[in-house]
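Exercise: predict the fold of this chain.
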Amino acid sequence: MQSERSGLFDRQELQQQVDSSAPEALIVKKQICDAFCSLEPTQALANLRLVQQNKEAAEELLEETYRRLTEHCTEESFPSLEFRTATGKMLIEVERYEQACDVLEGVMQEDDENAELWFLVATCYRAMDDLPNALEFFEKCRRMLTKMKKELRHDFYLDDQLETAGDDSGDAKSVGQQDVEMKE
């Protein structure tokens, strides 16, 4: 009982002695909020769980990362493009395609010249059976990689990715065509 009273007294005394609008108090408050609201720990732990092949635990942690990202982040507080891209990739790995698509399309709003992003989003759409969008994104990825290959010539190192984008684009076209033929 005594320790509860002294703890309460200490807290009240501290509140009286510290101006909560003082610059130092605001800095400490921001640091505390940043530490509790940070996305990095849950994403890092999810990555560890994936490495440990514990997909179920990784999925729960990525759900929390996604929730925090969508609920608590403003444009000014968004994590880096790299962080969000890595989160999107991990969401794909745990088969959370809709959430991965949401995160990756958000990144694309800031960097629409990244062929990998177009490929990842296309992969999500294909997994969700949204073949028209999958085809559109695979085609854009293929065009970007083809253009890059022409510009870089001998320095182009993404031949495998270009081939995969072309194959996936063709697959999406043929499956889409089969769906149309079945409906007729």
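Check your answer against the key: DSSP finds nine helices and no strands in the chain.
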